[in-house]
Automatic annotation (TrEMBL):
Name of the protein in question: Glu/Leu/Phe/Val dehydrogenase dimerization domain-containing protein
UniProt xrefs under Gene3D superfamilies: Leucine Dehydrogenase, chain A, domain 1, NAD(P)-binding Rossmann-like Domain
Family membership: Belongs to the Glu/Leu/Phe/Val dehydrogenases family.
Keyword field: Oxidoreductase
Species the sequence originates in: Flavivirga amylovorans
Signal sequence, start to end: none
Keyword set includes Oxidoreductase: yes
SMART domains associated with the record: ELFV_dehydrog
InterPro entries, per database record: Aminoacid_DH-like_N_sf, Glu/Leu/Phe/Val/Trp_DH, Glu/Leu/Phe/Val/Trp_DH_C, Glu/Leu/Phe/Val/Trp_DH_dimer, NAD(P)-bd_dom_sf
PANTHER family in UniProt: GLUTAMATE DEHYDROGENASE (PTHR11606), GLUTAMATE DEHYDROGENASE 1, MITOCHONDRIAL (PTHR11606:SF13)
Length: 408
């Protein structure tokens, strides 16, 4: 696996598109690792300090994710070095998507990512640049449909991603009109835990869980884990944390989800980040869902959790460990050898899978069909890992080997 990974990491990307905004300091990159299957896909992110290497590593991660989620295309990513809180953000995105629109028409599909919203920014702004849908390039490059078929499938994709969830099984409040895009990634993170116990033995019910991050992914993961019967004992977010070693009730977790301010945890009982960070890693927990930013978790933090009874980690964040390597760094490897570590490209593949699902010819548009499809994809990926390695350790190493053998 290590040799395969080294070979994959060292392979130069096929296309690097670099853009400098004429009106601000913003600089952007689209990195296309390969045009496997005639196309490539990956979202658009924005943050201060972003560089081309970050975009490259995420493009390579996307290519591995597509081996699980489908379609069988190459990995790509777009990133813009700019402050997302700057009032000039909309203009930057408009100029960026105008510049990158020929790629989006031909062979590249994008979506929302860190600080860039799929529904309110990506879709309307790309439309202004003459792109039918941000995934149009994947249709043209990979599926090569007839014009009529493309119109139908793009319509299906457009409606499916922004579909309002009608079932209380999947929404914390149907009256607030949460969409599939709002909930599916966190659902996948929780579902990976459920499928892990189904395959390797045991049950989510009654297990204690800690969630890092309380944005779209972390809050949804906490909601679904709690719904499954897990006891959320700790939540840590940039704004602070909450700890209850007996576990919050499902009603309490639902209320926290509904009370959050954007991506921020809100509660009268919030303790400071420093206090939460000092305590949360050593409380007894079996499940850990890192759903905050990439490259945060230290070796000391993970060892404290393992020593406190940790059984499984389901990654909501891409590369959650504080490693310098693109993929399989020393902290991740250490963790993978000690506990069950479900890699990000399986556990957080929900949104990528939803795109793939709606790109198919004609699919069922019910909440149950959409969410069950993601659940089944995650189950199948974990089953393939189990079939190759029945140990509860080295799950990530085995998953990487399965993926890389499809790519190299």
């Amino acid at each position: 696996m290590k040799e395969l990974l080294k070979k994959y990491e060292n392979k130069e990307p096929e296309i690097v598109f670099n853009w400098k905004d004429p009106e601000t300091y913003a600089e952007g990159w689209t990195v296309i690792n390969s045009l496997r299957g005639g196309a490539a896909g990956g979202g658009t992110r924005m943050r201060n300090g972003l560089d081309m290497n970050e975009v490259l590593s995420l493009a390579k991660t996307m290519e591995i994710k597509f081996t699980v989620s489908g379609p069988a295309i190459g990995g790509a990513k777009s990133g813009i070095n700019f402050d997302p809180k700057d009032p000039r953000k909309k203009g930057v995105l408009e100029r960026w998507y105008a510049a990158v629109s020929p790629l989006l028409k031909s062979y590249y599909g994008t979506g929302g990512d860190l600080n860039v919203d799929e529904i309110h920014e990506v879709i309307p702004i790309t439309e202004e640049s003459g792109v039918w849908h941000p995934q149009e390039g994947v249709f043209n490059g990979h599926f090569k449909p007839t014009e009529a078929d493309k119109i139908n499938r793009i319509g299906q994709l457009r409606h499916g991603v922004i579909k309002v969830i009608e079932s209380s099984n999947y929404s914390p409040d149907v009256l607030r009109k949460y969409t599939v895009a709002d909930m599916i990634t966190g659902f996948g993170v929780a579902e990976a835990v459920k499928q892990y116990y189904n395959i390797y033995g045991g049950s989510v019910k009654g297990k204690k869980a800690v969630v890092q991050g309380f944005g779209n992914v972390g809050a949804a993961a906490a909601f679904y884990l709690s719904q499954m019967g897990a006891k959320i004992v700790g939540i840590i977010d940039i704004s602070g944390g909450l700890i209850n070693e007996e576990g919050f009730t499902f009603e309490e977790i639902t209320n926290l989800f509904l009370a959050k301010n954007g991506n921020t945890l809100v509660s009268d009982d919030l303790i400071s980040f420093d206090e939460a960070n000092d305590k949360i890693w050593s409380i007894k927990t079996e499940i850990f869902a890192p759903c905050a930013a990439s490259r945060l978790i230290t070796l000391n933090q993970i060892d404290q959790m393992i020593d406190s009874g940790l059984e499984v980690i389901s990654c909501g964040a891409n590369v959650p460990f504080a490693d310098k390597e693109i993929f399989f760094g020393t902290i991740m490897e250490h963790t993978d050898y000690r506990v069950s570590l479900i890699p990000d490209f399986i556990s957080n593949c929900g949104m990528a899978r939803v795109f793939a699902y709606f790109m198919e010819r004609k699919v069922e548009m019910t909440d149950e069909a959409i969410f069950n499809d993601t659940s089944n994809i995650i189950r199948d990926a974990l089953q393939k890992v189990y079939n190759k390695n029945k140990l509860k350790t080295e799950i990530s190493a085995t998953a990487f080997e399965i993926a890389l053998n499809q790519l190299i």
